[in-house]
Design a protein that fits this description.
single chain; about 550 residues; alpha/beta; Rossmann fold; OB fold (Dihydrolipoamide Acetyltransferase, E2P); seven-stranded mixed sheet; five-stranded mixed barrel; 17 helices; globular
Length: about 550
């Protein structure tokens, strides 16, 4: 198989965009649309697909043009894929001989590989063309005979997004694929400098995509089989379409129109979630923000997360880094989101806050870590729910104040102590509140198969689910929570078939354990709940137990 063009997805992770499986970024879809508009029929390949089958390198070698998209500016730990590293990107560019080699994405801002190190901005060898600015617009400029440096125009993006929607079927996660939808570019706080470490400043002041443009793309994606969507690629969804300085007021009616339009475009969608919101928007415009959050809850699917950049609970650090919110404002935002989104539907809260801490910023002292802990202790005592706490060390990029003004490496001991405390003393008890034993998680997609299989629901920051059974990858299961870790839950598939499950799996039923699991096996088949209770007693998940007898083999 040969192709005129190939898009190689090295995956991206930015403050406003996630493109690591099961997510697919807007970048690669737009690039596909650009190539098609220039009468180049593109194939699509992920970096993991290339690693798993090196013979597919021949597909790249025989193409006329290869476009690589890559770069992580907020790197994390990933279950679904591993982003391309700098050496890997350079090796691909050097090894290719025939095609025109094009590189774009946040990799051009610099590369560090992990938090806690400065991102080095360096020449990347082996490529003929570097797409400065908007990758799609710059590729279009290059293919039109111009310099490959251009800013995005949503009028063009809307067109390319529709054309490029066809590649989603080539993604290895399809049909269990989260479509990251772009709603805006740039941050309002660029007007006052923005946060010291954030790369969103490079996109400038906000430009908003139209409701019609977003809905039109969803129509095309839905026709290709997309059923899972997230409104990402923006620093603060609450101010979608708003203007008025660094802290504009939300327009709830516009958000209502946006969600309604997506629902019309994808009438049988399975997931519609959000990503970032600015806590300062909520604290400074509480009533309008509350109405905006209500519009989101009315239009989305449950189990959603509003990610908020807290960064620090130290007011001195917040001021030194021009951060968007101080601790009091963050506390207000957590409260308001809980009041609007705390009600459960389909067993899970509608919408909960997610908190992002960034450590190693300018102005930190050992007391910063104490203040962070005190803040989380107060959140827990208040009864408010938090879906997850993300802790990372800053990765400073050239062009941001944090590149030269930071405390990297100065408080490693305090960082590790704080992170351990969060995982053991905050995350674990909080997960027990968010996903209590007996919570049903619908449609968990298995991503890693083994004696202990791992899967997640489709969504924004879904909880990792460990299932003590060997289950095939890409199979989908409804499960019930039976235990908790600091970053995951253990669950059993529904119904819990007492007469068929192996002993090790039965031992995870609350109140069972290894000894009683052995007794269950000894007494199988068990015909009723009453018989089961004679061995185990009552459990908190009795109503999920099934006593179907195993099939009798035919003679």
């Amino acid at each position: 198989m040969t192709s005129d063009g190939v898009i190689l997805d090295g995956y991206v992770d930015e403050p406003t965009c996630l493109g690591v499986p099961p997510y697919i970024s807007p970048y690669v879809r737009y690039l596909s649309g650009v190539l098609k508009e220039h009468e180049i029929d593109p194939a699509y390949l992920t970096i993991d697909g290339l690693r798993q089958d090196p013979t597919r390198f021949q597909l790249l070698q025989e193409a006329k043009i290869v476009v690589v998209i890559a770069g992580t500016t907020v790197p994390g730990k990933y279950l679904g894929g591993t982003p391309a590293g700098l050496r890997e990107i350079q090796q691909i560019g050097t090894a290719l001989r025939k095609p025109v080699k094009v590189l774009g994405g946040p990799i051009l801002y610099g590369y560090a590989g992990q938090g806690g190190k400065r991102a080095v901005h360096q020449a990347i060898g082996g490529y003929d063309v570097l797409l400065e600015g908007s990758p799609a617009a710059s590729l279009d400029a290059y293919l039109s005979g111009k310099e490959p440096r251009a800013h995005l125009s949503y009028r063009d993006i809307d067109r390319w997004a529709k054309e490029g929607s066809t590649i989603i079927g080539e993604h290895p996660s399809f049909p269990h694929l989260m479509i990251e939808l772009e709603t805006a570019s740039g941050c309002p706080r660029t007007l006052e400098g923005g946060c010291s470490f954030c790369t969103e400043r490079f996109a400038g002041v906000p430009t908003y995509r139209s409701v019609e443009g977003i809905a039109g793309e969803v129509v095309s994606l839905y026709a290709q089989g997309a059923r899972h969507f997230r409104l990402g690629k923006q620093p603060d969804l609450l101010v979608y379409g708003s203007s008025g300085g660094a802290y504009p007021c939300p327009r709830p009616e516009l958000l209502e129109t946006l969600f309604r339009s997506i629902r019309v475009a994808a009438p049988k969608l399975a997931t519609l979630h959000i990503d970032n919101v600015n806590p300062a928007t909520i604290s400074r415009h509480e009533e309008a923000a509350r109405e905006a959050l209500e519009s989101i809850v009315e239009g989305h699917t449950p189990g959603d997360v509003a990610a908020m950049g807290m960064e620090t609970a130290d007011p001195a650090v917040a001021r030194a880094n021009n951060l968007k919110a101080e601790p009091e404002e963050m506390a207000t935002a957590i409260r308001v989101i809980n009041e609007v989104g705390g009600e459960r539907r389909q067993g899970v809260p509608e919408l909960l806050p997610g908190l992002n801490f960034v450590l190693g910023l300018a102005g930190e002292t050992p007391d910063t870590y104490r203040l962070n802990q005190v803040f989380l202790e107060e959140v827990f005592r208040s009864g408010m729910l938090v879906r997850r706490v993300n802790i990372r060390q800053v990765m400073p990029f050239e062009g941001t104040p944090a590149y030269s003004e930071n405390t990297l490496g100065r408080y490693r001991k305090e960082f590790e102590i704080f992170k351990t405390w969060v995982r053991e003393s905050f995350d674990l008890p909080m997960l027990r509140k968010v996903f209590p034993t007996g919570t049903v998680l619908e449609r968990v997609v298995i991503e890693v198969s083994g004696d202990l299989s791992f899967g997640r629901q489709m969504g924004s920051y879904p909880i990792l689910v460990g299932i003590p059974l060997s289950l095939r990858e890409k199979t989908v299961h409804d499960v019930v929570v039976v235990n908790h870790g600091s970053r995951s839950v253990t669950a059993l598939p529904l119904p819990i078939e007492v007469n068929r499950l192996p002993q090790q799996t039965l031992s995870w039923i609350p109140s069972v354990g290894k000894k009683r699991a052995a007794q269950i096996l000894k007494n199988r088949p068990i015909g009723s709940l009453e018989e089961f209770r004679k061995i185990v007693g009552a459990t908190p998940i009795d109503h999920f137990l099934s006593f179907i007898l195993p099939a009798v083999p035919s003679l």
